[in-house]
Structure formats: C-alpha cells, structure tokens
Amino acid sequence: MEYVVRHETRYEYPRSVAESFTVVHLQPRTNARQYCTHYRLDVSPATAIFSYVDRFGNDVQHFSIIPDHHELRIVAESRVVTVAGEGGDPATLELGQFRGDSPCVIVDESVRRATETIAAPDGDLAAYFFAAGRYIYDTFTYRPGLTTVHTTVAETLVSRAGVCQDFAHVLVALGRARGIPTRYASGYIHVGDTPVLGADASHAWAEAYLPPYGWIGFDPTNNRVVDDTFVLLAVGRDYADVSPTRGLYRGPKGTLSVSVAVAGGGDQ
To answer: What does residue 241 show for φ and ψ, rounded to 5 degrees?
Structure first.
C-alpha cells in the first residue's frame, strides 16, 4: 500500500514567547515492513532543522526559535509504502529495556492481577499477547478527553476507559508482566472507508518480540493485528520516548491543535 501523510501541529500563545526548543518524532521509519520514500518538515517561524537517530533507531528532528513569536506551526509531509506479509522487524536492540518498568508503564500488582483474567495456552506467548489485546478491546471503552498524557496504567485499569495511547500502555504492561519484551509504537492507521478509532489523529499500539517472527504489533483500540494498513512513525519503551512533538519555551501557556490526513491505500 502507498500512503501520503500530512501531519500539522499548531501552538498558539496569548502573548509572545521566546527561546523555544522542540523535538519531533514525525518521520516514518524504514524497515522490513515499510519504506519511507519522501519526508519533508516545515516549521514556521522559519529556522534551521537538525536531525539525529535516537537509541531506538527512530529518525528525530529538533530545532530552536530564539526571537519572540505568537505561534509555532509544524507541518510534516511524508510518503510511505507498506508491505503485506508475515513476520515483523528482527531484534536490533537490547531486549531487556522493553521488559521492565519505564516512565509511563509501571508493572504493579494491578497489572499482575489483570494478567490472571487473560486466557491463553500455557507457554504460548503469542496467543497470550493477542488475547491481552482482545481483552482490552472487549472490556475498555474508547473515551476521548477522559485521560491525559500523564494518566498511569493503574488508573486506566480502574477506569476501563481512555484513548489509543492508554490502551497501548496497558497492553505493553500486560506483555511485560509475562516477561515478553513489549514496546510502544506510534503512527497512523488507514483502512479506507471502514470506520476505525484513532484514524483522524496520531495512533498508538503495542509490539511484542515473539521469536521466530520478530516484532509483531497488535492494536487493542481496534482489535487488529498490525498489517500494511498501519504506518509506523517511532518505537520506544512508552509514549515519553516517542511523543510526536515535545519541547520547552519561555512565555505563557498556549493552546495546541493537531490535524492529520492520511490518503491513499492503493496497491503499489
């Protein structure tokens, strides 16, 4: 499948701000399952943009704006070809960092209790991971506005509600509770005219390392194994590692708006 993605982020401030520094994870990855054939990042006010590859293999951009400004506009445009097929990425990093606690994913007693309600054959880690994803889909409610980026896994397990970021964090925690290396993935989903949750913004899911297949993704928000209808932006231990935009600035609190358009879906 070939997709064209336009992701616009706009920060507006009631008074001028200065000395802003921003980091973005908006460039689709190139790996065994997809190829990013074009990527362009535009920033207003105009400034120099720098790039690096982070510890997880993600392509990251960062920039600073020193003069006063009332608005920051970030537009990422990309073209991606995804490939259908069995199996996922091979392991390229130390898997231990995806087994334990991370800033947004704490495997506590509430998580361990939740694993006891998930039915899967003993020792079949793949079956358990997919069953955990279906458990979230079946028992949690998609409810925008209820949670924030700071909502914990334990809080989501109590409320049984949230958005794709929350559900991905819960699935990451459930995987790690069983000793499965599990990571957080951000990106987009596009399935044509079929309604799916999270298709109008950045999306998130979880990926488990399952030998001999490698990294396999499951989307608990939509009860779907990740396939060529997904575009992967970045992977990390949790949201804190791969937030689409983050930064610091000097000035008053502003308002954030984000719009995402994913077009295409035709065979390449």
So the answer is: -80, -25
Q: What DSSP assignment string belongs to 202-261?
A: -EEEEEEEETTTEEEEEETTTTEE--TTEEEEEEESSHHHH-SEEEEEESS--EEEEEEE
Neighbour tally for 90: CB within 10 Å: 13
- One-letter amino acid for residue 117 of the chain: T
Joined together, the tokens standing for residue 196 give: 């799916």
Six-digit token string for 70: 């009332």
Collapsing DSSP to helix, strand or coil, 182 comes out as strand
Residue in 61, 63, 83, 60 with CA at minimum distance from that of residue 72: 63
- What topology does CATH give the domain 95-240? C8orf32 fold (3.10.620)
pLDDT in tens, 2-11: 999 999 999 9
Q: Under 8 Å CB-to-CB from 239, ≥6 apart: which residues?
A: 104, 149, 165, 168, 169, 184, 186, 204
**Nearest 5°: phi and psi at 228?**
-80, 5
**Residue type present at position 261:** A
Query: Tokens at residue 221, please?
Result: 């928000």
DSSP-H helix ranges across the chain: 109-115, 125-139, 153-159, 164-177, 239-242
CB 233 within 8 A of CB 218: no
Condensed to tens digits (0 to 9), the pLDDT of residues 164-222 reads: 999 999 999 999 999 999 999 999 998 776 667 666 678 999 999 998 889 999 999 99
Q: Would you list the domain boundaries of the chain? A: 2-83+243-266, 95-240
Third-level CATH fold of 2-83+243-266: Immunoglobulin-like (2.60.40)
Distance of CA 80 to the CA centre of its chain: 16
